[in-house]
Specification:
The chain is α+β, with helices and mostly antiparallel strands and 424 residues long. The chain folds into 2 domains: 3-206, Cytochrome Bc1 Complex, Chain A, domain 1 (2-Layer Sandwich); 231-419, Cytochrome Bc1 Complex, Chain A, domain 1 (2-Layer Sandwich), CATH 3.30.830.10. The chain contains 16 helices and 11 strands. A 6-stranded mixed beta sheet has the order 1-2-6-3-5-4, sandwiched between helices. It is globular. The two termini are 44 Å apart.
C-alpha cells in the first residue's frame, strides 16, 4: 500500500508504511541522469551526486554529514543512472526527522566549494578506473556503447577523465539548478512511521525548494536504426576468463511487452534451473555464471545475456548461447516453464518487499519515470496474464541476426574471428 501527496510547490511525496520493521528508508529521486547531458559535460550528473555529500552551511564538511549519520548507524548512499539520480538514507525509524532534514539540507544547501570540486575530480577519475578495470562491470558499458552511440545512452554515466578534469563549477551549478526543482523530484518514505507525521516532515524539509531559473527537462528520444548485420566490440585485456555481453534492442519503461520480456529473461537466465544455466554451465561446463535480463529506459530497453566464459572454448560458448536463443524463438516455451517463471517472480517480489529500501524504490522510481504506479498486486496480475504466445512473439521480435550486439572483454585484438559466429 502507498499514499501519494503533492505539496504546494509540486514536490510529490510517496508514503509506504510498513509496521513490521524497525527501520525507515528515505529516497529522494530526481528525473535527470546522464542522457540529459551534452558531450562536453558528460558525467556532470554523477559529479553533482558526489558534491551533494561535501558540505552545507549547516554541516560544513563531508565529515559533518557522515559523522551525523554514522552516529546513529544509518546506511546511506546515492546513485546516478541514464534516467534518474537518487539519494537515500536507511535509518532507525525513530530517526526519520534526522534523515529528512539531512538529505534536504544536502540537496538544497550544498556549497559546491571550488577546492572540494578540484579534489573530487581525482576521486571520480579513480572510480572510473575501478569500473573499467573490472570486466564484469565494464562489459555493460561497452555493450551500451555499440547499441546506442551517438545517443547519450551510449556514453559512460561517469564520463571520461579529460571531461571530468575540465569540469567547471558554473556548469555544475547551472545543470543542478535546471533539473533539481519541485516538479522534477519525488520524495519517498517506506518503513515504520506514522503517515501524518511523515507527510508533515516532508513538507517541513521539502516545502520550500530552491527557486532558480529552471526549465523543463528534455532529452532527445532514441531512434533505433536497424543494421544489416550484427555489431560487435572487443576490448583487449589479459584475463583468464572472457566476459561476454550480448544485447538486443528491447522495450522502454511502461511498454506492454515488458512483462513478456521479463518472463523470457526469467526462463532463459534467471537462476540455476534456467535454460542457459543448465545448457552452458551444467551440461557443457563453459562458464561459472550466466544470466539474462531485460532493462528499460524511458523510450527503449536492452535484452541481454551476460556470462563469464572459458577463454579456450569461447567460440563454442557463443554458438551454444545463440542456439538456445534460436530454440526459444522457433519452438517457444512450455506451460510448465511459464508457470515456474511467474511463480519465481512472485516469490522474489515477496522477498523484495520485506525491505523498506526496496519498497520505496519500487514506488518512487515508477512515479518519476512514468508518473503512474503499479502496486505489486497490479504488476503480478499483468505478469500472470502473459501467455506462451506472448513470450514467443517477443523472442521472435528480438532474436534476429541483424539485431545482435556483442561486447567481449578478454585476450583478443581482432573481432573477425567472432563475427562469423553471430547468426541466429
Amino acid at each position: 500500500m502507498y499514499i501519494k501527496h503533492t505539496l504546494d510547490n509540486n514536490v510529490r511525496a510517496i508514503l509506504a508504511p510498513l509496521h513490521d520493521t524497525k527501520t525507515v528508508t528515505v529516497l529522494v529521486l530526481f528525473g535527470v541522469g546522464s542522457r540529459y547531458e551534452q558531450k562536453n559535460i558528460n558525467g556532470i550528473s554523477h559529479f553533482i551526486e558526489h558534491m551533494m555529500f561535501k558540505g552545507t552551511k549547516k554541516r560544513p564538511t563531508a565529515l559533518s554529514i557522515s559523522k551525523e549519520l554514522d552516529a546513529v548507524g544509518a546506511e546511506y548512499n546515492a546513485y546516478t543512472s541514464k534516467d534518474v539520480t537518487g539519494y537515500w538514507i536507511k535509518i532507525d525509524h525513530e530517526k526519520l526527522p534526522l534523515a529528512l532534514d539531512l538529505v534536504s539540507d544536502m540537496l538544497y544547501n550544498s556549497k559546491f566549494d571550488a577546492k572540494e570540486i578540484e579534489r573530487e575530480k581525482k576521486v571520480i577519475c579513480e572510480e572510473l578506473h575501478m569500473y573499467r578495470d573490472n570486466p564484469i562491470m565494464y562489459v555493460d558499458t561497452l555493450l551500451e556503447k555499440i547499441m546506442f552511440e551517438p545517443s547519450p545512452l551510449g556514453w559512460d554515466i561517469g564520463g571520461e577523465d579529460d571531461i571530468i578534469l575540465g569540469m567547471k563549477r558554473n556548469d555544475m551549478v547551472r545543470f543542478r539548478d535546471s533539473h533539481y526543482h519541485g516538479e522534477n523530484v519525488v520524495v519517498g518514505i517506506a518503513g515504520n512511521f506514522d503517515e501524518k507525521k511523515g507527510l508533515d516532515l516532508i513538507a517541513k524539509s521539502f516545502g520550500n525548494p530552491m527557486e532558480k531559473g529552471v526549465h523543463a527537462n528534455v532529452f532527445k528520444p532514441f531512434k533505433y536504426t536497424l543494421s544489416k548485420k550484427p555489431k560487435m566490440i572487443v576490448h583487449f585485456k589479459e584475463t583468464e576468463q572472457v566476459q561476454l555481453d550480448m544485447g538486443f534492442h528491447a522495450y522502454g519503461y511502461g511498454d506492454k511487452q515488458c512483462h513478456a520480456a521479463a518472463m523470457l529473461s526469467n526462463i532463459l537466465g534467471a537462476g540455476m534451473s534456467s535454460r542457459l544455466f543448465i545448457q552452458v554451465r551444467e551440461r557443457l561446463g563453459l562458464c561459472y555464471s550466466i544470466r539474462a535480463s531485460h532493462q528499460s529506459f524511458h523510450d527503449t530497453g536492452v535484452f541481454s545475456v551476460q556470462a563469464g566464459l572459458n577463454k579456450v572454448r569461447i567460440h563454442e560458448a557463443i554458438a551454444v548461447i545463440l542456439k538456445e536463443l534460436a530454440k526459444i524463438r522457433d519452438n517457444g516455451i512450455t506451460a510448465g516453464e511459464l508457470k515456474r517463471a511467474k511463480d519465481n517472480t512472485k516469490g522474489r517480489m515477496a522477498i523484495q518487499f520485506e525491505d523498506s529500501e526496496n519498497v520505496v524504490s519500487w514506488y518512487v522510481t515508477q512515479e518519476v519515470l512514468k508518473k503512474k504506479i503499479d502496486t505489486p498486486e497490479e504488476r503480478l496480475k499483468k505478469i500472470y496474464a502473459v501467455t506462451k504466445e506472448d513470450v514467443q512473439r517477443v523472442a521472435k521480435a528480438l532474436f534476429q541476426t541483424n539485431k545482435i550486439h556483442l561486447a567481449l572483454i578478454g585476450p583478443y585484438k581482432d573481432q573477425k574471428e567472432f563475427l562469423s559466429l553471430l547468426k541466429i
